[in-house]
Amino acid sequence: MAMTQEEINNTNWSQSVAGVCIKDGKVLLARHTYGSGNGRLIIPGGYVKYGEVPEEALIREYLEETGVRVKAGRLIGMRFNAKDWYAVFAVEYVEGEARSDGDENSEVVWMDTTEALKDDTVPGLTKTMIECTLSGTGFELTPYQTSHPGYLYTQQS
Fold first, then answer.
1. What are phi and psi of 6, to 5 degrees?
2. Residue 13 phi, psi dihedral angles, 5° rounding
3. DSSP, res 139
4. Closest CA to 22 of 114, 103, 86, 99
5. What is the Cα–Cα distance from 45 to 62, expressed in whole angstroms?
6. What is the pTM of this model?
7. For each of the chain's 157 residues, which pLDDT tens digit applies?
8. Which residues have C-beta within 8 Å of that of residue 22, sequence separation ≥ 6?
9. By CB count within 10 A, which of 54, 70, 134, 146 is most buried?
10. Please, what sign has the CA dihedral across residues 152, 16, 89, 37?
């Protein structure tokens, strides 16, 4: 499903988020369908929309791409370059059946974490983020306090 012009204009292309969801020893991965990740199993995520905080974007992207509702946990990784940043969170499974969005990914799977760390179709950055989640490292999430919290964030609290 192609993005509308309004969605394109409302997307902050310099801010992106992803999350590692581990449940019962398995990690949720999506097989990407485009770009450098085409055909690879990666952690779900995407770009932040203007007016969203990163946790909101993460919750929205997870639901859109996988059908799974999550809650953002600790920040486990950050990557910066001259023009953008990418934040990765450990996320807690809330509800939902994993399924492909039929667009950005061709399949969504719960994969044993040990298997994922050995799988050649799982990129190095995804493996590193899985390892960080398993080790329990990272920063505790301190939500931004505002008198006008975003819709998605208040629905997950």
1. -65, -45
2. -70, 0
3. B
4. 114
5. 6
6. 0.85
7. 567 888 888 888 889 999 999 999 999 999 999 988 899 999 999 999 998 999 999 999 999 999 999 999 999 998 888 888 999 999 999 999 999 999 999 999 999 999 999 999 999 999 999 999 999 888 876 666 655 555 444 444 4
8. 28, 90, 113, 130, 133, 134
9. 70
10. positive
